[in-house]
From TrEMBL, chain A:
Protein name as it appears in the record: DUF917 domain-containing protein
InterPro entries on file: S-Me-THD-like_C, S-Me-THD_C_sf, S-Me-THD_N, S-Me-THD_N_sf
Gene3D superfamilies per record: CV3147-like, CV3147-like domain
Domain S-Me-THD N-terminal: 8-163
Recorded superkingdom: Bacteria
Source species: Paenibacillus agri
Domain S-Me-THD-like C-terminal: from-to ranges: 166-354
SUPFAM superfamilies linked to this entry: CV3147-like
Source species taxonomy: Bacteria, Bacillati, Bacillota, Bacilli, Bacillales
TrEMBL record, chain B:
The protein's name in its UniProt record: Hydantoinase/oxoprolinase family protein
Domain Hydantoinase A/oxoprolinase: 194-363
Molecular function, one GO term: hydrolase activity
Residue stretches making up the Hydantoinase/oxoprolinase N-terminal domain: 4-173
Superkingdom field: Bacteria
Gene3D superfamilies listed in its UniProt record: 3.30.420.40
Pfam families: Hydant_A_N, Hydantoinase_A
InterPro entries linked to this entry: ATPase_NBD, Hydant_A_N, Hydantoinase_A, Oxoprolinase-like
SUPFAM superfamilies given in the database record: Actin-like ATPase domain (SSF53067)
Organism: Paenibacillus agri
Length: 365, 518
């Protein structure tokens, strides 16, 4: 067990943005909220997976909604506790620890607020190892642990319990409530026991986010390019370095879809590269050939500073490094690929794990 | 022939030029910046008119670019005492205003801050009714204590009604002499960053008056009465003086943008690094296709996060007046500077402070003042101070470059005399003619702009109509800022669909620029 204090939050937010693969919402808002909560209630205890009792009930907390709404309509601060209390009252369970559902983006830091408010420990496990847009895109879904009952709370004091027959239904119903509640809510869900979380979750990702943040920040201060060290820290591959020369975005079914083209710089001079995104970066194509896809992580950082760039903040002329990071093994199963592979998002290409040679040239149709 | 006068007030020097309508330089001058700003500007204008022998009535436009707002925030000087209100509770209580601000800056401006109920959802519905009683109560509490009030309401870029109503109520109680900053007029979506910019704007109200009134008086005293007055803003375009009084925060970072635009104009270069060396700091920017490269990162001003789109700049504490202390292991270069007092305090000028300019003179890079006054400096001290200065510059150059290839560097600004003709990582050091007044040239040649950013529901508007309306609003803003209607062009359109929401909500930002009305 170790303490998470106010001065750790900046690193965690930075690392969470790297693991957010272009989406997941701006962690800065989460960082400030967590900072205010720790100032008020004191530091949070982070426990490693082995410190969690198998029989203990644990729950995740996070935000759901449009990132643009979250950065404008900042939460009131009581939503995590309110959703937590609603779920506790509904299920009658004594809950003894909290975990992040999604280490990528703002949702890495919402559990810190609830942990500070309740005094309960935070478990160093999450359900994605990255960011994904839908509620069922978690490793718990792969072993049939349902998201529901899902408690949702808004800043006005409204709360809703969704009892979908499965996670996909909970997601669908929740989206409707979300819009009525003003486009951004805090959810408390995936109530389970310690042994389930340990088996089904991805371990040590909270600490990983913190380490990534430390790496990027310390190199920035020493005036070195953080890209190389970052690649090493995450055991990733530098796919491409280039400058944004074309950007397309469109709105479809409530999600931002688009593609961004880069022309190569330095060693990649003369090559072209395209990233396809739906909130997160999902497919990478070099000179027309698919080189990496979801569920592997595609993270994009500013060349000079190593600071991650989101799909919403992309601009013409940005100089970027694209880094691919292997996803957790749990995503590389048949059900994992079905749930979060390229075909689920509508890209007509097979998933081939990062590092494995493709037998034929893969192209998008 | 009609002429325009352009002035750039830096921390150390006030630079000024007169250009004709074909944008040819007629006259240039450099005078020390004075503590009251105005008398320095006055001297510069008088000097220009004497040199050029022009009739002051022929001056049609007067442009002022200044780093005074930036300096005021960074140095925490002349800032106004302000009240801050955020409208949107119960939302946003999790992050109170001023959270994560540098404490010494907060202490300078803070009178009170409240979050009250009101504000809107993304689709224009209300979050809660506006708490007018709370507004009246805080106005009474602040009466006699505040010089300005910053008002920010949630989703005010969609509906600014609550901010306007709050201003009315404050006006009733606090009167017209108090400045009101409304967030919907200053920034875009992103509550904390917009609120921060609004607070800074309110805190700059005294500085704005010093800046604008000083300029008007200086012109009038030199017989320039009919000229239209403009101020340079951070995107390299101009705004009218009335605008600048209301939105001083928009002048922040105009200096570096102007020097990059000026450097481009003077050299015809399309791609290069631009090093603008002033009295206190050096700013390195990147010239891409004749314009400054924009930063993809959030803009921090004096330790406060805002959402301005800034030129991608690296600033570090080295300028002509940078103070050098100690020797051997205790040697330090800056970051403080004697600033505008260089001509009194520098050793070569008979003063007692060792500065970067003295080291440059000792090294023979430039001839200035009286070399004989440097006799007591040990050669080791000169060498190690110089090496430290060059290290600072080369490290910064390396950070701003995106390839390992050497690229040209244009060096401008009065302090650039402390730089040598060769630098590691640079293919060629270019010192254009008129390098010392590049900022003044940049602000003189600038256009005027207008920008609008709003969220539209495409189901309600239809895409084409939403875009048309946004373009119309932006063009209107540019005209309000002084552009002639027939020259207004839309230069930038950005459409960002709002993820995770049905109803096809989309954020549209449009920027228009145009030539000054003649």
């Amino acid at each position: 067990m170790r303490k998470i204090e106010s001065h750790h939050l900046e690193d965690i937010a930075l690392g969470a943005a790297v693991l957010g693969t272009g989406g997941g919402g701006d962690p800065y808002v989460g960082q400030l909220m967590a900072m205010a909560a720790i100032e008020k209630y004191g530091p949070v205890n982070l426990i490693s997976p082995e410190e969690l009792d198998d029989e203990a009930w644990v729950v995740s907390v996070g935000m759901m909604g449009a990132p643009t709404v979250v950065v404008e309509k900042i939460p009131g601060g009581q939503e995590p506790l309110q959703a937590f209390e609603a779920l506790k009252a509904h299920t009658g369970k004594e809950i003894s620890a909290i975990f992040p559902i999604e280490i990528g983006g703002i949702n890495s830091l919402i559990p810190v607020i609830l942990a500070a408010t309740t005094g309960l420990p935070l478990v160093d496990i999450d359900g994605m190892g990255r960011a994904f847009p839908e509620l069922q895109m978690v490793t718990f879904h792969l072993v049939d642990i349902p998201s529901g009952p899902v408690a949702m709370a808004d800043e006005k004091g409204n709360s809703v319990i969704v009892n979908g027959v499965d996670s996909v239904w909970s997601e669908r119903i929740g989206r409707q409530a979300l819009t009525t509640m003003g486009g951004s809510v805090t959810t408390c869900d995936y109530l389970m026991q310690g042994f389930q979380l340990k088996e089904a979750g991805i371990h040590h990702t909270f600490s990983l986010a913190q380490r990534i943040g430390e790496t990027v920040r310390s190199l920035k201060h020493r005036n070195q390019s953080p890209v190389e060290a970052l690649v090493e820290e995450v055991a990733g591959t530098l796919l491409f370095t280039g400058k944004v020369n074309n950007l397309l975005r469109r709105n479809s079914g409530g999600f931002t879809k688009g593609e961004v083209s880069l022309s190569g710089l330095g060693q990649d001079q003369g090559r072209t590269f395209t990233l396809y995104f739906q909130n997160e970066f999902l497919v990478a194509e070099a000179d027309g050939e698919v080189v990496a896809t979801t569920p592997d992580l595609l993270t994009v950082v500013d060349v000079e500073t190593g600071v991650p760039v989101t799909t919403e903040s992309l601009r013409y002329g940005n100089r970027l490094a694209v880094i691919a990071i292997p996803c957790n093994e749990k995503w590389r199963t048949v059900k994992g690929i079905e749930t979060a592979g390229p075909r689920y998002f509508g890209y007509n290409v097979d998933y081939i794990p990062l590092g494995e040679e493709s037998k034929e040239r893969r192209v998008l149709q | 022939m009609s002429y325009r006068i352009g002035i750039d007030v830096g921390g150390t020097h006030t630079d000024a030029v007169i250009m004709d309508n074909n944008r040819q330089l007629v006259s240039k001058i450099k005078v020390p910046t004075t503590e009251d700003i105005g008398s320095g500007i006055k001297r510069a204008i008088a000097g220009l008119l004497t040199q050029s022998e022009l009739d002051p009535r022929e001056i049609q436009f007067a442009m002022l670019g200044t780093t005074h707002c930036t300096n005021a925030i960074v140095e925490r000087r002349n800032l106004a005492k302000i009240g801050v209100v955020r409208i949107g509770a119960p939302a946003s209580l999790a992050i109170p205003p001023f959270l994560n601000w540098p404490k010494e800056l907060l202490d300078k401006v803070f009178v009170g801050s409240h979050i009250i109920s009101g504000g809107h959802e993304f689709d224009g519905r209300r979050i809660a009714p506006l708490d007018e009683a709370a507004l009246r109560e805080m106005a009474a509490e602040w009466k006699g204590k505040v010089a300005a009030v910053a008002i920010t309401s949630i989703f005010s870029p969609v509906d600014s009604g609550d901010e306007q109503r709050a201003q009315e109520i404050f006006r009733e109680i606090l009167g017209d002499d108090i400045h009101y900053s409304l967030s919907s007029e200053i920034g875009s979506i992103g509550l904390i960053e917009r609120e921060n910019a609004t607070i800074l704007n309110a805190a700059l109200v005294h500085v704005a008056r010093l800046m604008v009134r000083g300029f008007e008086e200086s012109l009038a005293e030199n017989g320039i009465r009919g000229a239209r007055i403009f101020l340079g803003q951070n995107d390299g375009t101009l705004m009218t003086s009335d605008y600048a009084l209301r939105f001083p925060v928009l002048t922040i970072a105009s200096g570096p943008t102007n020097s990059i635009r000026g450097a481009a104009y003077l050299t015809d270069a399309k791609g290069a690094l631009v090093l603008d060396v002033g009295g206190t700091t050096t700013d390195i920017g990147v010239l891409v296709q004749g314009f400054p490269r924009e930063s993809s990162l959030v803009a921090q001003i004096g330790g406060v996060r805002t959402n301005f789109r800034m030129p991608d700049l690296l600033s570090f504490g080295l300028g002509g007046g940078t103070r050098i202390r100690g020797e051997g292991d205790t040697l330090t270069v800056g970051p403080d500077s004697v600033g505008y007092l260089l001509p009194e305090k520098g050793l070569v000028f008979g003063g007692t402070d060792l500065t970067a300019t003295d080291i440059a003179v000792a090294k023979g890079l430039t001839e200035l003042g009286d070399r004989g006054k440097l006799g007591s400096l040990s050669p080791q001290l000169v060498e190690s101070a110089y090496a430290t200065m060059i290290d600072l510059v080369e490290e910064a150059i390396d950070k701003m470059k995106t390839t390992s290839d050497d690229i040209p560097a244009i060096v401008v600004g009065g302090g650039s005399i402390i730089l040598p003709d060769q630098l590691t990582g640079v293919s060629e050091v270019i010192r254009p003619l008129h390098f010392e007044v590049a900022n003044a040239i940049g602000v003189t040649i600038a256009e005027v702009s207008g920008q609008v950013e709003k969220i539209y529901s495409l189901e309600e508007w239809g895409r084409d109509q939403a875009l048309e309306e946004a373009k119309r609003l932006a063009a209107g803003e540019a005209e309000a800022a002084g552009a002639s209607a027939d020259s207004v062009e839309i230069v930038d359109i950005e459409e960002v669909p709002l993820a995770y929401l049905p109803g096809n909500a989309v954020r549209i930002r449009v920027k228009a620029v145009g030539q000054l009305t003649i």
